[in-house]
Design a protein that fits this description.
This protein folds into two domains: about 130 residues, Response regulator (Rossmann fold, 3-Layer(aba) Sandwich), CATH 3.40.50.2300; about 70 residues, Winged helix-like DNA-binding domain superfamily/Winged helix DNA-binding domain (Arc Repressor Mutant, subunit A), CATH 1.10.10. The longest helix is centred in the C-terminal third of the chain and has 14 residues. By secondary structure, the protein is an alpha/beta fold. This is Two-component system response regulator. InterPro entries: CheY-like_superfamily, NreC/VraR/RcsB-like_REC, Sig_transdc_resp-reg_C-effctor, Sig_transdc_resp-reg_receiver, Tscrpt_reg_LuxR_C, WalR-like. One of its GO terms (molecular function) is DNA binding. Pfam families: GerE, Response_reg.
């Protein structure tokens, strides 16, 4: 069973999420919270697999709650937002969220995304994540992070990281580089290990912040 805590300051939203997720045989909603502070407490007490986290909440917002939950290692976090271009979402990704979805996403998409996060994957929507990065990483100037961080990568691993930043799947990367999907998976694993990244979301953010990938290109 995938154990989930739902966090949203609107009770109606929590009810809706609970109904959708509770209808799945492999998902158990073990708790609900109305703000970030409650979310941190529940995550520590219940140790869920995933916290479904709203970002705009009273007392403590979802960004800070995400950072603390991820830092404590109590759960993975999937962020939900009303607006696709939201500075809070980018901050949540930087803080360790395993991805995000819009609140009006289709129920089956929500369920599949939650399962992916629970299994250790990340939810990277190429279009929405790209728009966020375009807006909040910036379109020019100096990189936000030292490019020397990438020196541990081989030329091939850099190529793969650029394609990850474009939101491409392992299969799409394999086709683009004329490699097997298994080989790409190995490269991705090495990239994450060498750069000490948790998942593809962090890889996307790092690629943009170091200037390896640039908004509006590719």
């Amino acid at each position: 069973m995938i154990r989930v805590v739902v966090v949203d300051d609107q009770e109606l939203m929590r009810v809706g999420f609970r109904m959708v997720l509770g209808a799945q045989a492999d998902i158990d909603v073990v708790g609900e919270a109305g703000d970030g502070a409650q979310a941190i407490e529940l995550a520590a007490q219940l140790r869920p697999d995933v916290v479904l986290m709203d970002v705009r909440m009273p007392v403590l917002d979802g960004v800070e709650a995400t950072k603390r939950i991820v830092a404590a290692g109590t759960a993975r976090v999937l962020v939900m937002t009303t607006f696709d271009l939201d500075e809070y979402v980018y901050a949540a990704l930087q803080g360790g969220a395993s991805g995000f979805l819009l609140k009006d996403t289709q129920p089956d998409h929500l369920v599949s995304a939650l399962r992916a996060v629970a299994s250790g994957d990340a939810v990277v929507s190429p279009s929405v994540t790209r728009r966020l990065l375009d807006r909040f990483v910036g379109t020019g100037g100096s990189p936000m992070r030292d490019t020397a961080e990438l020196d541990v990568l081989t030329d091939r691993e850099r190529e793969v990281l650029v394609l990850i930043a474009k939101g491409m799947s392992n299969l799409e990367i394999a086709e683009a580089l004329f490699l097997s999907e298994a080989t790409v998976k190995t490269h991705v694993g090495r990239i994450l290990a060498k750069l000490e990244l948790r998942d593809r979301v962090q890889a996307v953010v790092l690629a943009y912040e170091t200037g390896l990938a640039r908004p509006g290109l590719g």
